[in-house]
Q: What sequence folds into this?
């Protein structure tokens, strides 16, 4: 895998920025020695930080940005007044072709709004989607959309399926990823009209896509399929429900294990095993939500991430860029647009 | 609390029916000595079973039903051909006024379809909802709708809020239950048009309802509000996501605790504490989904329930019936229909 990729980084986004960003670059530089980074943010602070991180300094160029987007800023406000922010300027670098992708731990809504406005969607993709990885009993599952689009039609869901499948193949290295549509039951007759129409399109089309059919909420934890397709409303609720349930379970576990001296003793012996459990079940260990479908790789790191998490998000962006994610999407869309008789299929929706 | 209630029971519904139903009645008879039951099902089998359960026999009358609905039957098929089934005849008894409510562990879709067809909705309620209880860090939360309506408008959500709030007060005994609408963020501007309109109606109206605003998926496990209102698509996915995540967590916990001899030793000491944890986090321990908004109490017990679970579902039906749930709903709707100036408010949606 070649990784002589240039990425634009929003150095001012995230709770622990810019320190965490510079430290993240230092970690990423070891993993991807050929990668180069454009660091957008306050020049004085970044110069000072890079002086302390020689490994990072060797692979970075600083680009001064006078403003920074805060976590409370409304996307519409950032669209109006945020053109000098580190976030906007980093995205601009992708649009001008200076960088293959952008990574930011800043405000999610603002990042999506500016990325959509500046980069536009890939031809053939109506709406970009936010994709993320979930822990499951079988390994991990990609789910999209996680909140970019609260209302989705069948066409959007079919495009999400294609993007999720390509992501799984290129980034996770899964050979024939299986794809399911999230629904209220697994029978073909269930659900709203969007999921039913998307189901029939994906079932009938002649691509390589391995379509499993409908899946339910229980299939998320079970890991029944590699890609779970859903609208941004349901996906966002499901993502946060997994987080909330995992937290509740941890809370109950802690309470149970401090209830009696027997249980406390048990905890002492099992402590390191339980720590591993916590790491494994925490959805946040998968850092980096991918904005798929834009002309340029865009990766959103968690706002509260540390340097290691930011380095992981950089890794995802490098994978997407160096594997030619967007070109593969275009190829798959071209397949889909042609029925065996040469007629476009999606247009009929 | 008076409990001289008559309930109609579908004795043939559920994996372990009819034995589990008769045993469940025996348990319920001790808890609610004044309650009486009409047992719909195969007369010969039920007579035989009641001969073995004197406690149940004293409070039951058998009503013969020649057919039974199976788990695989489609609701539409049951509507056409199921009029002699134990499920239909039990619901019929409610519609004729012989029983205040019905309890069934049979096919959920069929039960909702027949109950809607035979009982109709309470005047002022457009659609019935399925409500269920979730375990949370703070206690328990009622969520509705869990799958009766895949598409919901703002009006439906407002009605669900009212029904959920009354349920919380009457059945759970919570004084001022807080109500939240499930959304992709807690800010007023987020979400689709249905949740935004429902939010503004509930925020502005002058009932006693304690409206919290929007809640997110993480608030389910945290127990932020007493009542979570959502459409049936999202609610069903969230319910099953909680189940799937709890299963995944249990699976990871089991694996972690068998990984090393230290962990195994820890497990031996903590075993009973961990068993309590399993009971506490299992959403299925709350047996019985309530179909709210119908002219007659309808409670759906889990298909795989045992006698104790079925007795709990009977208890919920007795609570709803003896507290006059449907009358309270009508009162609240009357409040809502009148603005301070006497104009109806919901009609404007």
A:
């Amino acid at each position: 895998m070649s990784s002589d990729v240039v990425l634009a980084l929003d150095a001012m986004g995230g709770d622990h920025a810019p320190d965490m960003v510079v430290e993240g670059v230092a970690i990423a530089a070891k993993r991807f020695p050929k990668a180069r980074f454009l660091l957008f943010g306050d020049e004085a602070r970044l110069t000072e930080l890079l002086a302390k991180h020689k490994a990072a300094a060797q692979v970075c160029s600083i680009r001064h940005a006078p403003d920074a987007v805060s976590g409370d800023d409304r996307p519409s406000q950032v669209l109006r007044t945020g053109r000098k922010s580190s976030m906007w300027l980093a995205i601009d670098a992708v649009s001008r072709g200076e960088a293959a992708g952008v990574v930011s731990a800043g405000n999610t809504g603002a990042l999506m709004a500016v990325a959509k406005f500046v980069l536009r969607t890939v031809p053939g993709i109506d709406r970009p989607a936010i994709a993320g990885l979930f822990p499951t009993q079988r390994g991990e599952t990609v789910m999209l959309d996680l909140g970019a689009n609260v209302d989705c039609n069948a066409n959007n869901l079919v495009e999400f399926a294609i993007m999720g499948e390509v992501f799984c193949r290129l980034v996770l290295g899964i050979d024939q990823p299986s794809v399911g549509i999230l629904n209220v039951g697994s029978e073909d007759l269930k659900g709203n009209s969007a999921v039913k129409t998307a189901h029939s399109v994906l079932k009938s089309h002649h691509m390589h896509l391995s379509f499993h059919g409908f899946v339910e909420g229980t299939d998320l934890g079970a890991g029944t399929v590699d890609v779970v397709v859903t609208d941004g409303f349901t996906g966002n609720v499901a993502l946060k429900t997994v987080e909330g349930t995992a937290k509740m379970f941890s809370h109950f576990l802690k309470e149970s294990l401090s209830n009696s001296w027997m249980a406390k003793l048990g905890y002492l012996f099992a402590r390191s095993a339980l720590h591993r459990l916590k790491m494994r079940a925490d959805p946040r260990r998968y850092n980096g939500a991918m904005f798929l479908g834009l002309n340029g790789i865009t990766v959103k790191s968690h706002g509260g991430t540390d340097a290691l998490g930011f380095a992981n998000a950089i890794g995802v962006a490098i994978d997407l860029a160096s594997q030619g994610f967007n070109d593969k999407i275009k190829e798959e869309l071209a397949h889909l647009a042609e029925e065996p008789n040469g007629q476009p299929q999606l247009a009929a929706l």
In short: Residues 1-122+293-324 of chain A form a domain with the Isopropylmalate Dehydrogenase fold (CATH 3.40.718.10). Residues 340-349 of chain A have pLDDT under 50 and may be disordered.
